[in-house]
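User: Modeling request: complex.
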Amino acid sequence: MRTNVVLGSAAVLLLTLAVACGGGSNPTSPSPAPSPAPSPAPAPAPSPTPGGGTTITITDAGASPRSLTVAQGSRVTFVNNASGNREMASDPHPSHTDCPELNQVGFLTPGQSRTSGNLNTRRVCGFHDHNRPSDTALQGTITIQ
Ligand SMILES: [Cu+2]
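Assistant: Request completed. Predicted assembly structure:
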């Protein structure tokens, strides 16, 4: 009777040790932690230059960029890198009444640049070369947001 109790206790003890060892003696076991799936970074929204200027360059190929988004209150500089004169003005041709701030750019000789007035109103301003009103390469839009 007493022998059985001793053996039984030993068995329980061994079992306890086995469980303890098996459970805790292997800290480097490769625990397949679920690696976070590479989440695609959120696409950066087109950020207007706050309070800064933005440039539209005119070459013999036309204006670039022809579509532009700027922050409210920004000014846009037109640079004439074309071989001839350009005269940039607000739509609509020929009254130029949509965005009078753009009319400050006006006549540009080759190499010349000029900056618009402050674009304070949230809207879309179209522009064109007043002397080439049908040349779509010299037309574009400035979105003020
Ligand atoms: Cu015009």
